[in-house]
Structure formats: structure tokens, C-alpha cells
Write a structure and sequence with these properties.
The chain has 180 residues and is an all-alpha fold. The chain has one domain. It is 74% helix and 0% strand. It starts with 15 loop residues before the first helix and ends with a helix. It is found in: Cell inner membrane.
């Protein structure tokens, strides 16, 4: 086992889907970066306001929503760079074709879980829109707003996972063809 992660298989892909995936993933990173900058500005403002005796009532809530945006909007890029948290103890003991098949199966399961999450969040958004749900805080933020951010982040992650699965399938085909 090495300290550095293996190269993500999709980095070798260069067709239209993967170029689009790279752009969408980069847009998620930029949006997450903007959210992080906004958190910094809001918290700085809140600290100064508290220091002069006029604390805000909205900074913590808005910063919380933006923190969620930072986490989910950058997830696809983290996957693309293979910088995500992964439990590879079992897979690291395998070699060759068996390792590739197990990796493919594991990534398919992850893709199905994230796709289910995307569908669940879409249903949650529909429910929030239908009933006009708002946060139970002083700001009463329409819950559809943070939920849309979650949907976008996880949808981009699902696309990145689909790219990973496609790249692994292609890799398996290439190795199978070479062995024949």
C-alpha cells in the first residue's frame, strides 16, 4: 500500500461526457469556494459586530447553510482527484482482474446510493415547495434553498461517480482484450 492514492481511472478519459463532467465539477468547486469566502466575510462581520456590542441574529444560520454548500459542491472534484476518504483495506489485498472487478462493484454500489440520495432530495424539495416549508429560526429561510444546493452537489457527485464507473468498465474491457 502506498501513501499516495492511485490515479483516478477517469483522468485518462477525454470524450465529450468527461470534458463536460470536468467543467461541471469545476463549477461546483468555484461555487463552493465562493461560499467559503462568504462564510469568512459573514463571520468576520459578526465578530466585529459583537465586539462593538451589536451581534447579528443571522450570521450563524447563513454560515451553516453555506458550510453545507462548501461540503457538497466540492465532493465531485474531490472524487475526480481521488482525494476522498476511502476504506481500501480489502481491495488493497487483491490483485489484477479481481481487484478491478471488486472496485467496479464497490463504485456501482456507491453510485446507486448517491443516486438514491439525489432522488430522495428531489422528493424532499417537492415536499418543501408543496407545503412552503421554512426553517424554524428567526430568518425563516425557505427550506427549498439549502435543499437545492444539496441536490446540485449530490447530482454532480452522481455524475462523477457515473464517470468513474464508465472509466472502470472501459479499463476492464481494455485489460480483458489484452489478455485474449
Amino acid at each position: 500500500m502506498t501513501a499516495e492514492p492511485e490515479a483516478a481511472p477517469e483522468t485518462n478519459e477525454n470524450n465529450r461526457f468527461f470534458r463536460l463532467l470536468n467543467r461541471v465539477s469545476d463549477a461546483g468547486v468555484i461555487a463552493g469556494g465562493c461560499a467559503l469566502i462568504a462564510i469568512t466575510l459573514i463571520v468576520t462581520y459578526d465578530v466585529i459586530a459583537r465586539f462593538i456590542g451589536h451581534p447579528t441574529i443571522w450570521a450563524t444560520e447563513i454560515s451553516g447553510y453555506l458550510l453545507i454548500a462548501v461540503a457538497v459542491l466540492g465532493a465531485a472534484d474531490t472524487l475526480r482527484r481521488n482525494e476522498h476518504f476511502a476504506m481500501t483495506l480489502l481491495v488493497d489485498t487483491l490483485r489484477g482482474q479481481v481487484r478491478r472487478w471488486v472496485s467496479l462493484a464497490a463504485w456501482c454500489v456507491v453510485l446507486l446510493l448517491v443516486a438514491g440520495l439525489v432522488l430522495g432530495i428531489a422528493a424532499l424539495i417537492a415536499n418543501s415547495a408543496r407545503f412552503g416549508l421554512r426553517s424554524y429560526t428567526i430568518l425563516q429561510v425557505p427550506l427549498i434553498l439549502p435543499q437545492i444546493v444539496l441536490l446540485v452537489g449530490f447530482a454532480i457527485l452522481a455524475l462523477a461517480l457515473a464517470g468513474r464507473v464508465i472509466a472502470l468498465v472501459r479499463q476492464l474491457r481494455t485489460h480483458t482484450t489484452r489478455q485474449e
